Give the backbone structure.
Amino acid sequence: MATSLSAYLDVGDYLRAATNQETASLLGLNTTLAAGVVAGALTLSVTSSVGWAAGPVWLLDGPWAERAQVTGAPDGATLSLAAPGAAFAHGTGVSVSQAGTAGALAETILRASGWIENYCRQGAPGDRALFALPRTERWRLPGPRAWLEPDGALAVRVGHFPVQAVTALSVETSPGAALALDVTQIELASDGRLIELPPAALSPGGALYPPPGLSRGGRGWLSVSYTGGPVTPDATPYDLRQACVWVVSDLLAQRRNPTGAASVRMGSFELQARPRTDPSGDSLLMIQAKAALQSYRVEW
């Protein structure tokens, strides 16, 4: 199965941010899709193929960003891809770009997006994406993610917040003995981080509470299917986009300061890469990015 990448910006977004970073050497082909493509497509219809080269091409499309391989450009409006072609379907206007002579801006954006996900720590390794996507998780009960409150309510702290919708919730107290719960009775806290189910919902049909095998001291496993995450795939919030701009700029700025020195002086040119009083060693760009990401970050 193909693995998608996350992109909280595309090439056009970064160029419009007017960061004063040099980007010409990081772009060869820089265009967009002129028409949508389906998964497995071996050709891309683009607005221009100027600057194309045989080699990697990046399609930055939110949660479905990917890298493919260009083999040719039969005309000014089409790119040919090596099999297996595009891994995902993409719509008109998606950013399509290739590397320049000194690197690839699209790849730098993907690295910055990956850094943001690891910094925010939503989900678990393998699924740190901040996009609101359908997910299924399984947690030990009781545990830090799922537990019974003293009044008998079931509480679940899922990996991605805010929770947009819950489609299934079940508790397994022994192998093969699963109790499906009524998701229409769930309560969501205002911040969307906690799913709660009242005691009455754990006693379907008037059965005695708690169900056999389920207790605060017993062992169980909870499975939840839900859509969660702060970012609608086609509408990344401006604060998150700006944080990504700052992280990309920090990565690109390392070209001027590859050693990460606090101060670089060359003749009349002087660069101070970070505040001398900051013990973290972060640049001003990273300090601003981390501040912007606080509302998306898991602190425990």
In short: The chain has a mean pLDDT of 88. The chain is about 15% helix and 30% strand.
